[in-house]
Amino acid sequence: MEVNNFVYYNPTRIYFGNEQLVHLGEEVKKYGSRAILVYGGGSIKKNGLYDKIMKVLRESGIEVAECAGIEPNPQYTSVNRAARICRENQCEVVIGVGGGSVIDASKVIAQANFYDGDCWDLVTKRVTEERALPLIAIPTMASAGSENDAWAVISNSDTNEKLDPWHRGYQPTAAFIDPELTFTVSAYQTAVGAADILSHITDVRYFINEHKIEFVNDMMEAMAASVIKYGPIAVKEPENVEARQNLSWISAMITGGIMDIGGKTDMVLHMTEYGIAAFYEIPHGHGIAILMPRWMEYVLSETTAPAFFHFGVKCMGIDADLDVLEGAKQTIAALSDWLYGKLGLESRLSAFGVTEDRLHDMAVKATENCGGILHSITTLTVNDVERIFRMCM
Questions:
Q1: Which terminus of the chain has fewer CB atoms gathered within 10 Å of its CB, N or C?
Q2: Distance from CA of residue 388 to its chain's centroid?
Q3: What is the pTM of this model?
Q4: Using CA atoms, how far apart are residues 379 and 295, in angstroms rounded to an integer?
Q5: CB contact at 8 A, 86 and 108
Q6: Is 65 buried (19+), middle (13-18) or exposed (0-12) by CB count in 10 A?
Q7: Whole-angstrom Cα distance, residue 251 to residue 148?
Q8: How far is CA 172 from CA 94, 169, 179, 182, 292, in A?
């Protein structure tokens, strides 16, 4: 059997648990005394987190510039605006506070600080800039795990594009993960986050053809089972500490590189969702939730059924004695019930204003950066993706 070679290294220092923000000042001061605080629509001011952060920074002698208003699907224009503030105030550290979108924007802000042009040049790799300011992430919801990886997802509504550049400087130097910060996240955002976490396990790392180290597979199954267990609990009981702790830690772990060991990562559903988000405002995790069961149903065959059935047995309580194809079908049904029943998410793209006449354009966008073919447990062409979109209407 071929040996899976890899090098594992993750430089992010994670402070996990309550009251860890007392260490924020010392982390910032490793790099300087001027920081830019990046956040979204202002919820951190309503729940008191903003005041806590500012108190720690001021007591540490750190000057703070601010950039608010980062969108749920962060626009390149917001990154440009923040980068200008960063340069004008000679900031030495970027602090991103919020969901994955804010942290993603903060990553490109850290890089764009060293580039006077349009940050979209950096996102598209038309311009190379190796430098980036140190980044500290303070996530307020469990979702994409952006607090522990070197990827960013940025949108451009002018060109109908949503891209996910990687840059070594995007890896946060530190992350402060307090599960109690997620208590005030709405039931809807909690559900969307749980769906996104599950997709980062299954879509990106689990349902692939390449051989994986068995122990890594076992870890992914354990994490997926925990998300399936604790997601609905967190939706119904927002201050359930056990549920919030598990979701917060799994969110950070799935993107920290451990799940990538010994296997190729793939993103068929993520790329497909980017095709939707290029034209419509839809939370990423919700788009994934609508796509996932329909994708599984579309690619279901004697070849793919064993993987789906195995997942159902290990993670969703499907009877191991069932016929493989029947077991795979029951897995898809159970996943649909979890997403649309237990988490309470809307199951149709049409609810977000998606219209039939846009489906082909969406499919083209989803595949254009992959040579017209998406690869995972099966390959998908533009026509395949369009058919899956049609199933989601």
A1: N
A2: 22
A3: 0.92
A4: 11
A5: no
A6: middle
A7: 9
A8: 10, 8, 18, 20, 29
Distances (CA, A) of 264 to 2, 41, 89, 222, 289: 14, 36, 41, 19, 23
Residue 1's pLDDT is 53
Three-state secondary structure call for residue 73: coil
The strand pairing partners of 155, in sequence order, are 75, 162
Phi, psi angle pair for 139, to nearest 5°: -75, 140
Q: 207 to each of 115, 192, 273, 378, how far by Cα in Å?
A: 38, 20, 17, 9
Q: How much of the chain is helix, strand and coil, in % rounded to 5? A: 55, 10, 35
- What are the beta bridge partners of residue 34? 63
pLDDT at residue 162, rounded to an integer: 87
Are 333 and 176 in contact, with CB atoms under 8 Å apart?
A: no
Task: Please identify which residue in the block is written with the tokens 């089972």.
Answer: 225
- What would the two tokens of residue 53 be? 């952060």
* Positions of the chain with pLDDT under 50: none
Angle formed by the axes of helices 359-367 and 268-277, nearest 10°: 130
- pLDDT given at position 3: 61
DSSP string covering 173-187: SEEEE-GGGGTTS-H
